[in-house]
Amino acid sequence: MNSPAIHAIGLRKQFRATDGAQVVAVDDVDLTIQPGEIVAFLGPNGAGKTTTVDMLLGLTDPDAGTIEVYGMTPAEAVRNGLVSAVMQTGGLLNDFTVEETVRAVAALHGRTDRVEVVLDRARLSDLAGRRVEACSGGEQQRLKFALALLPDPDLVILDEPTTGMDVGARQEFWQAMRADAALGRTIVFATHYLAEADEFAERTVLMNHGRIVHDAATTDVRAAYGGRTLTFRPPADVVGADGIDPAWLAQVRHALEPLGVTDLEVSAASLEAAFLALTTETPHSPEMIGATR
Ligand SMILES: Nc1ncnc2c1ncn2[C@@H]1O[C@H](COP(=O)(O)OP(=O)(O)OP(=O)(O)O)[C@@H](O)[C@H]1O
């Protein structure tokens, strides 16, 4: 298939807030995602991530702009099993077991052949007999992920899939995702967690105030805005019980090389620093708006 997985131009969506004011949730967003890409949508609360995801899935129509998903409307792409989603909300039936849930939805899709494989991909095979209400939040999200995989979609969209999970559950979730992505599926996910974008996405789309403020390889986002961090190990004789000898530290400020510094390490700055640099900018300053691809 030659069409991009997602091709959106000039997307705009506004809502009327309870006080009657217009809120522009998504403001002139252009986005093209190619098959096989893994893309994070990163941004603070209210940045417009969920509204964008909803439009990509055809759950809400844009007020302006166009979206094609594999060359079709989002609704057609969903109907054809090309796209599926793991959303923040959306119920599971508590009385069903994990396997019963998967079998019931598989029957709706006419894909009962995929029950075992999606249980395996979502790392749920050992929990197949557990009732949904006895599953942890993380296990329930993995179950939603398993359901999303039933039609064997080319594109999976996940809206903050790990919200509320503890670190261990998040790791398990992403391990399941990673194993699946390795098979070439296109994955787009919205997240608040910078570490998830950093670890999992090759490309990060940073949103703020409804706009894309940066769109680039995740490593570039970090490098462009995060600066660099320098760490090193001082020689042992200047380190005492009270810390590093202040006189020595003063010398370090002047010149590093002659001081016997070892294990000098230059590491990329954290994505956190990039994120803060980007999202604390004036929201609509023109130099921040242009997407880099
Ligand atoms: N149905 C709605 N009615 C009114 N305003 C809305 C509606 N949906 C979203 N908004 C507003 O649009 C803006 C973008 O919201 P959206 O949920 O897309 O952001 P988000 O980046 O997903 O945020 P979060 O990370 O908190 O989920 C916010 O200001 C939000 O209050």
Automatic annotation (TrEMBL):
TM ranges: none
Membrane topology of this protein: Peripheral membrane protein
Domain ABC transporter intervals: 6-234
Broad class of where this protein is predominantly found: membrane
Native source species: Nocardioides exalbidus
Signal peptide (residue range): none
InterPro entries, sorted: AAA+_ATPase, ABC_transporter-like_ATP-bd, ABC_transporter-like_CS, ABC_transporter_ATP-binding, P-loop_NTPase
Name of this protein: ABC-2 type transport system ATP-binding protein
The organism's place on the tree of life at top rank: Bacteria
Cellular component, GO annotation: plasma membrane
